[in-house]
Design goal:
Layout (H helix, E strand, L loop, with lengths): L1 H4 L1 H21 L4 H37 L4 H29 L11 H28 L2 H18 L1
Helix pairs in contact: 2-3, 2-5, 3-4, 3-6, 4-5
């Protein structure tokens, strides 16, 4: 997909797959098989994003050098790593927060409607919201189109030095 569409379009396609998968899950969130199959699509939609993190970081390093004259490889990698860690921490904590707000009782024999909605929130609604946000950001990300020009300019600049 990346070879055919490029970085940005691959991300957009994967985010649309995630959006569609989660929207369809809202239709019948109680059906296990239905949600397991559509959950696979949502999980698949994350793969290009994970694979392209290094590429996007490299693009931002080149852009930073082009725009500000500083090649900040370590700082850019550290920022990407930090963002990944914070995102994983918040995403994982959301499970506990949602269940705490819904007053989840591990000893209960039947789930309350609030607990069911909490499960839907961290399993369907929050990922859907994140896919929509990422799609909007990817629509504004046009660095891939400008990259050849940026790299040529950097090459000229580096050859002068």
């Amino acid at each position: 997909m990346i070879k055919t569409l490029g970085v940005t379009k691959s991300l957009r396609v994967s985010f649309v797959i995630g959006i569609i998968g989660n929207v369809l899950r809202i239709i019948n969130p109680y059906n296990f098989v239905y949600n397991a199959v559509l959950g696979c699509f949502s999980t698949f939609a994350n793969i290009p994003m994970m694979c392209l993190l290094g590429t996007i970081t490299a693009m931002s390093i080149d852009y930073n050098e082009y725009k500000f004259g500083k090649r900040m490889v370590g700082t850019s990698q550290a920022a990407a790593s930090f963002g990944s860690k914070v995102g994983n921490g918040v995403g994982t904590s959301m499970i506990g927060w949602c269940l705490a707000i819904a007053a989840y009782d591990a000893t209960a024999t039947v789930l309350t409607p609030a607990v069911k909605q909490a499960i839907f929130t961290f399993n369907i609604y929050a990922p859907l919201a994140m896919f929509v946000i990422m799609f909007i950001v990817a629509m504004k990300f046009d660095l891939e189109k400008k990259l050849p020009e940026i790299q040529a300019e950097l090459q000229k600049k580096n050859n002068k030095n």
